Automatic annotation (TrEMBL):
It comes from Streptomyces hyaluromycini. Keywords: ATP-binding, Nucleotide-binding, Transport. Residues 7-253 form the ABC transporter domain. SMART domains: AAA. PROSITE patterns: ABC_TRANSPORTER_1 (PS00211), ABC_TRANSPORTER_2 (PS50893). GO terms for molecular function: ATP binding. It holds the Pfam family ABC_tran. This is ABC transporter ATP-binding protein. Signal peptide: none annotated. InterPro entries: AAA+_ATPase, ABC_transporter-like_ATP-bd, ABC_transporter-like_CS, ABC_transporter_ATP-bind, P-loop_NTPase. The keyword Nucleotide-binding applies.
Amino acid sequence: MTGTPALDLRSVRRVYGFGPSATTALDDVHLSVPAGRFVSLIGPSGCGKSTLLRIAAGLEEPDHGTVRVHGVEPAEACAAKMIGLVPQSPALLPWLSVLRNVTLPHKINKGAARRRERIAGNAERAVTGAPDMRELLVKAGLGEAMHKLPAQLSGGMRQRAAIVRAFGLRPDVLVMDEPFSALDEFTRESLQDQLLDLWDELKTTVLFVTHSVSEAVRLSDTVVVMAPHPGRIVDTIEVDLERPRGDRLFGERRFHEYEDLIRDRLRRAWRSEAA
Ligand SMILES: Nc1ncnc2c1ncn2[C@@H]1O[C@H](COP(=O)(O)OP(=O)(O)OP(=O)(O)O)[C@@H](O)[C@H]1O
């Protein structure tokens, strides 16, 4: 897959509604993400982050422009289960144990592996198959909880289960829409650690929406700053901090310099809107 970006959006435009009440959610968006990168989208409310995610995940089509996922159209990538989605609140099936919830997608999507193999250059990932879900649950701190029902878990545990489930199909691209926004700070940091561990092990490309500057810096290789009216990309910042990025990172000057830089770019995005 060398050379073909995991995600490639060119001149993407998305407008909701018509006439004077139309909203340009995305205007002339270009984004190319090499395979294996962790990219965060950050920006004021309404700047089109979720719209961009939905378009990248094939849940919505742009009005103009092209989108490719490992060189193919999002619909084809979806059919081959190359794209995983973690929404803001975890949608687990309440009558199934955690273990059955996370293994279910693999069971019902067996045909996807064959489709994936047929997509040029993608055979290598497809044949490696699904990771051991019990092992992933243990890694995510859910070893004791794997036979419990979702209702018996805390919010943070449910979100961890949803992340493990998304990784279960070994998606080439994982899109995550503010998955930790409803959690307290400590749970959030612990989930960031676990997400980074899983990402490091499975080498998935991640597109992650967040409102938290420190979360974006801690997790990402690249932070994409967006501005609204019209929704657009205004800055792309490469985060050149060593990995693994444990708690120690919070004490490092360079970490805070990146936070300051991104806050400054966000302020400019706000000002450009107000002007
Ligand atoms: N289905 C829709 N119909 C009409 N307008 C929509 C629709 N979805 C999004 N929009 C509008 O498009 C713009 C971008 O919305 P989007 O949800 O992508 O922004 P966001 O950056 O994710 O916002 P937030 O941070 O508040 O979640 C907003 O003005 C929103 O009102």
